[in-house]
Amino acid sequence: MKKVFALILTLAMVLSLAACGGGDAPASNSGGDQPSQGDAAPAGGDIEVAVVLKTLASEYWGYVKAGCDAAAADLGVKVTVVGPGAESDIEGQVSMIEQQIGAGCNAIVCAPNDAGAATAALQAAIDQGIPVLAVDTNVGIGGQTSFVGTSNVDAAKEGGLWAAQQAGSGAKAVIIYGQEGDNTSNMRREGYEAACSEAGVEVLAALSGQNTTDGATKTMEDLLNAYPGQINIVLCHNDDTAIGAMNACKSAGVSDVIIVGFDGNESAVKLIMDGELVKATVAQQPYEMGYQVVEAAVKAINGESVDEVINAPVQVVTAENGQAYLDNLASMS
Predict the structure, then answer these.
(1) How far apart are the first and last CA of the chain?
(2) What does pTM read for this prediction?
(3) CA separation (Å) from 9 to 1, 13, 16, 32?
(4) How far apart are CA 106 and CA 227, in angstroms?
(5) Cross-strand partners of 134
(6) Does residue 269 share a domain with residue 161?
(7) Cα dist. 295→14, 75, 131, 288 in Å?
(8) Average pLDDT in the 70-85 region?
């Protein structure tokens, strides 16, 4: 009788242990660590990467999306790219992050409109062991797998130094930065200010253009009224801002000004080639960033090593190299 009771007890313990093992949550896989023995990576065709961009309503972010889509096709994975209607829609982007995590992605990529707001939403992914990557603009959340992007400070400084060289000694500049509190805007402003300081250019003022063409037009109108006949250089957060500044200058009859944009959008480069007031744009490589961040996400899902920072190169596009740049853009479409 004792032997029968011992056998029953042993069998009950085995079944109990099996049930407990089946309910364990998978171990968190941050950085480039290999998956745990019980946490096999999904097969290529089953991998799903969610990408939440600042917006899809701009040329620049269209290039990032194109790079993401190309990587999806080359790697044989599913990539969903979403973004709000405007970069100012912080709440809308947070909702999209939450929706993508809830839908069950294997990794999530974000270009945050507000890093603080995005961090709160992305923490849920990190808590579940889902790799979190940032593109273009760093989130900086603890446990983040990788950031793929440009040093916005260094890139803006290059654009600022080019403008200072064109304007010559004694030049005065204004800076039209992006959304208030946006980290990318802050870094680009820092880079422009560093360039002006190094080149001996006086910065008359720095104001927000709200990240839109219309907003920048209004800001530039205010600056022209405040500093009539004094502005030689306009350093802008992005190409939409540069176009807004150009529109204001043309309406005011101002023609002797150097406007520098940022992003390398085709529309801006064509204006440069046509001899408009936009004389240069600091070109990132948005297509490459989109491709590289999806590539890095897939590596992270598969437990492969991923660099914490993947730098994307930049160049200052002017009338001299604009056509070659446009030809390269055309090859990506």
Answers:
(1) 79
(2) 0.71
(3) 12, 6, 11, 43
(4) 53
(5) 110, 147
(6) yes
(7) 42, 8, 13, 10
(8) 97
Locate the DSSP E strands across 42-110.
48-52, 78-82, 107-110
In a domain, 278, yes or no: yes
pLDDT of residue 9: 40
For residue 235, the enclosing domain spans: 152-283
One-letter amino acid for residue 87 of the chain: E
Q: What is the pLDDT of residues 30-57, one digit of tens each?
A: 344 434 333 556 655 699 999 999 999 9
Across-strand partners of 281? 261, 317
Nearest to 237 by CA among 174, 326, 168: 174
Q: Coil, helix or strand for 41? A: coil
Q: Any idea what DSSP says for residue 278? A: E
- Where residue 112 falls among pLDDT bands split at 50, 70, 90? very high
Provide the CATH number for the domain around residue 303.
Answer: 3.40.50.2300
Cα angle: 75, vertex 77, 81; to 5 degrees: 110
